[in-house]
Amino acid sequence: AAAALVAAGPDVLGPLRPYRLLHEHVPGFSGLRVASRFAIVTVVAVAVLAAAGWAAVAERIRRPRLAAALGVALVALAWVDLAIPVRWAELPTDATTLAPYRALADGTGPVVELPMARVDDRWDTTEAPRQLYATIDDRPRVNGFSGFVPPGYVATVELANRFPAPESVEHLLDLGVTTVVLHADQLPDGVPPAAAQRVGDAWLIDLSGPRSTWPGGGAG
To answer: Measured between alpha carbons, how far is 172 from 142 in angstroms, rounded to an integer?
Structure first.
């Protein structure tokens, strides 16, 4: 019951607000951004109570086969309840697709993959696969996908997608980005050819060189 109350959200019970009190004053709770996740504690508790209740009922059924059949039926009912559709995506694993990420493993520093997906434009199908591919090189990413959008992320998407405009390059450099992965067939005007390398189906662009080599002089 306590977990269900916390899972109801930060505005329940007015000034008491159990979730907010835990979030603000108990170490570890500040990392839990979605209050409804506390509901899993309630679900587990109810499952244990249900099992205990069934055990008590089964003891009163004098016919063992009937008790066993009812037990199987309850388990089957639970499986039906859990049979929700799950959307799967087959990700390509050919050498061309993986080549940029394998090449990134030889470098260091944060990476941005362009174009970045806008949050309201099915970013799950774009950024989630990139997070999986990023485990190949294990370098930090500006990109990401989650149920939470950090402050400034939307502005970063808009700026980064203007690459190689001076204000875009300046912003990426301020973020500490050392490599741009550009998923495009052609290298856009303004990118110094010496800084770009075609690997697989993407361009790897090095930002670690002097800013004066970019359009805008000191700005890029």
So the answer is: 9
